[in-house]
Amino acid sequence: MKIRQMIVLILWSAVAMAQVLPKNPLAGREVLEKQGCLNCHAVNGTGGTVAPDFGKQVFIGDEYDLLSKMWNHSEQMLAVMSRTRTERPQFNGTDFRELSNFLYFVRYLGQPGNSSVGKELFVSKNCVECHSVGMPVSGKIPLDSMKVFKSPVKLAQEMWNHAVAMERRRISKKVSLPVFSDNEFADLAEYLRQASSLKTEERIYSYPGDPTRGLKLFKEKGCEYCHVQKNIGPRLDETNTNQSVMKIAGIMWDHSEKMLNAARQMKKPFPLFTDNQMADVISYLYFSSTPKTTGSAEAGARLFKDDGCSNCHFAGNKLKAPTVGQLAVYRDKDEFLAALWNHVSQMEEILVARGKKLPKLLPNDIKSLYLFVNENATGEH
Ligand code: HEC
Ligand code: HEC
Ligand code: HEC
Ligand code: HEC
Fold first, then answer.
1. Is residue 148 a contact partner of residue 154, using CB atoms and an 8 Å limit?
2. Full-model pTM
3. What residues does each domain of the chain span?
4. Relative to the alpha carbon of 368, which ligand is closest?
């Protein structure tokens, strides 16, 4: 992904999601580069190829989730690092938080569209049966005006709003309506923008949506009525919406026909969107499906014993691993998470020498360990 494009997208997120966002989510990108993560991982195709792409292949939730995923893959990561003589990344709390914020958003923002792919889609998805772009064709509905929209979500929104008319035309023309996957909405939007006969040089920003407003709309537009109260649509917390904005737009579109039918049967209005409302609803779907990490100090105490932390961290041990009481209280979870990661390779070496493996840790486990350690730490910094 082009860095400048990324900056624009991310600055917009920062404005719209100030309630959940740090001052500068882009900082995480620098951490990613500085720590050499991009030697192996990519962000939307830019970077290494030996490890999963953060924009496409992995969804990373909160900081506990990031550490859990890194921890549980540390054996493979550390193996590749020693083979390629890459230095092992060491973090401080701030680095870790910035990294986590960046990875969370990069997935949501998705990839920019590709206009030549979009051009093919315009034909293969049958848009061309009913629409024109670039020059007028008699009997076809021009889409040139799509160019002025600032975000590909707008294309999805316009299609959604016209679902009834499209459906009617589909029946009379005997063609099928398109189904979307991957980044196809963004590709189509990019193509329409390039092929449009309109001459405007407006900058194109992607408005990422505001989840708080999205929740309000979710109630007002009847989504909640069908999906939560009446169980007419599936429970959306079981739908994987930890996907990019455009992919979620695609999921909604692909079900629009059935939603329309359900609305007709129930004599309820089909929800329509104005302004940036669809982006708001989509951002709500993304945030609400992010798993919530829970934990407790009691569970942490159990884990500390059962997961073998206490095999090294006992009073008078030869490795000089501090007891929990000797540790100083961590300022925040990020500082703890960074400290835990920084000693993973040392732990692993000792464990491997003893014929043992690093215990797997889930996000909840890590939170519990954090709560336990901080409740019992009495040492000095
Ligand atoms: C030397 C290569 C290398 C470097 C450098 C590296 N990784 Fe990895 N990472 C890997 C490999 C290989 C895997 C996949 C392991 C597997 O498939 O089990 C992985 C997996 C992961 C995963 C889990 C992905 C999943 O599917 O759940 C996360 C998260 C991760 N790395 C984060 C990072 C971060 C953050 C950095 C930089 C601080 C980093 N990695 C640096 C090679 C690397
Ligand atoms: C079966 C015919 C048909 C197909 C196929 C079709 N559309 Fe439409 N589309 C329509 C009709 C009819 C309208 C409503 C026009 C109106 O209300 O003025 C419409 C409206 C739209 C609008 C709103 C236009 C505006 O000016 O507000 C957009 C955007 C759109 N379609 C995009 C697409 C795209 C992209 C595809 C292919 C992925 C597609 N359509 C496929 C028939 C179709
Ligand atoms: C009139 C009832 C109704 C309303 C209103 C409604 N939906 Fe739906 N929705 C459904 C039904 C029924 C399905 C299942 C369609 C299918 O099986 O293909 C569905 C499917 C979906 C899916 C796909 C779920 C999956 O697991 O694949 C999403 C996402 C979705 N709706 C979002 C919304 C949003 C957001 C709104 C509000 C803007 C909304 N729906 C309003 C009835 C409704
Ligand atoms: C194989 C032995 C071993 C195991 C198992 C082990 N540790 Fe450690 N740990 C150490 C050693 C040695 C140090 C001291 C590292 C140093 O001072 O550089 C340490 C340091 C720490 C620190 C302090 C890091 C810092 O610099 O602030 C924490 C927190 C910690 N361990 C937590 C854990 C937890 C939680 C577990 C269980 C999941 C665990 N350790 C399992 C050996 C181990």
1. no
2. 0.81
3. 115-195, 297-376
4. 4
